Amino acid sequence: MTQTSQPVHVVAIITGKPGTGDLIEPMLKDLAAGTHGEAGCLLYGLQRGIENPDQFTTVEKWTSLEALGEHMQSAHIQKALTSAGEYLAGPPVIVPGLPVVAGDAAKSDY
Q1: φ, ψ for residue 20 (rounded to 5)?
Q2: Per-residue H/E/C for 70-97
């Protein structure tokens, strides 16, 4: 990954096997609680799918790519991946990016 010291935005998609959403949700809530305590975490929001309740999305903002890397190596994320692993349909899809301001700047950045 390219290094950047500016805030990094992330969308992560976590998809469970059919019928596992209720089992995965508490694990992801624990992950969110641990993540909120990380120094580099500016935002970590968890959503559950409406059309697919076995799919979860996180919307994240980190102080830097380095902070995101530290998060990915943290004990609480490793615990969550291990705990939820058997219920996941595949590995989480993690998409880091840099914001592109477009249209109304107040509505285009978080």
Answers
A1: -100, 0
A2: HHHHCHHHHHHHHHHHHHECCCCEEEEE
Residue count of the chain:
110
CB-based burial, 35-64: b 16+ in 10 Å, e otherwise:
beebebbeebebebeeeebbbbbbebbbbe
pLDDT digits (tens, 9 = 90+) for 57-100: 999 999 999 999 999 999 999 988 899 999 999 999 999 998 88
- Per-residue confidence at 2, pLDDT binned at 50, 70, 90? low
Determine the CATH number of domain 8-99.
3.30.70.100
Q: Are 14 and 56 in contact (CB under 8 A)?
A: yes
Domain boundary assignment for the chain:
8-99
3-state secondary structure of 45: strand
Prediction pTM value: 0.90
